[in-house]
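Hey, sorry to bother you again with one of my protein questions. I've been puzzling over a protein and I'd love to understand its fold better. Take your time with it, there's no hurry, and the full record follows here:
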Amino acid sequence: MANQDPIRVGVLYSETGVTSTIGLSQLQGALLAIREINDSGGIDGRELVPVRYDAQSNPARYAELAEQLIVQDRVNVIFGCYMSSSRKAVIPVIEKWNKLLFYPTLYEGFEYSGNVIYTGAAPNQNSVQLAEFMTANFGARVYLIGSDYIYPYESNRIMGELVLQRPGSEKLGECYLPLDATEKDYGVIMEDIRNKRPDFIFSTVVGDSTAALYRAYADAGFEPRSMPIASLTTSEAEISQMGRGVATGHYTAAPYFQSIDSEANRHCLSRLRQHFGEDSVPNLCWEASYFQTHIFANAFRQAGSDGIAELMPHILGSEFDAPQGRVKIDSTNHHTCLYPRIGRVDAEGQFTIVRQATRPVYPDPYLVTHSLGDWTAKLETLES
């Protein structure tokens, strides 16, 4: 008789704490995919059951709960983590027990683990395109602001190196503030920016303090048309925490925006709101969390097991029609082929897509072959 036991998977995101807005959206992405999988008959008739914990935006808690999921709950696969500090806390646990982590977040690159599938953007799929767009349209004098942990330091280093390839480039400042920084804290930095007048500000601020940064910018009276904030980490979720219009005119690079004009995206958003309500804030991390869960389910159907040795041959090289387009897991580095886009925030808190790749860009997490022209052969300019 065929095995009818439920398949248990770990779902480990932050439902509370400073990154909970993104964490809750990642959770909804995973739960929506799980609901779709179960509504279509499960995995070969077996129900997919999430074993869910709140890591509270705390890297140490992520590590503890990952161990608990593996040792006590006996899961073989975990979907989880947002900040790089949480991923780096979990990887030793995953590797020790030889389990599998699906990580749905953009990150700083320069990493490989045989126990991780990376479904967020690597630097050659967002930083390169953002540097090219901002320097071409605004200039190459940049001021870098980030939250005080590993991803902003590394991402700012990469952005600095990319911008400095341009004539007339200059790094005018680089500041890092705690994850709970306030508008007053960012106000001090705005005064330094007023004195130095960069062409654009590059933000790697994450979590709740993102809203404080953009409010401080607005309070300083700066104008996005001449000196915008450009970011990889400001999505629809963070914008939803700001006052109306606060982020209007600023830019983000990401593979996914809610505003993608495709039937697949519209249908997915409709299902999300049907199950989780109109207050849901889908974003790039939500979308990666959603499609990676389906990639796992498809691989399990072929493997007949969630053991890493059985699963991996069916994950690597696999494809899925995600809301952003047809994505593919690269078999050589465990990262994902994605579609870089540049969006400008409109008055409704959504993104007007001004440039996008017309075919997927392969991940190059170690930036071995990148240049500022990486996507020009694949580029569709939607608006000047």
The chain has two domains: 7-121+262-337, 124-259+340-381. The mean pLDDT is 94.
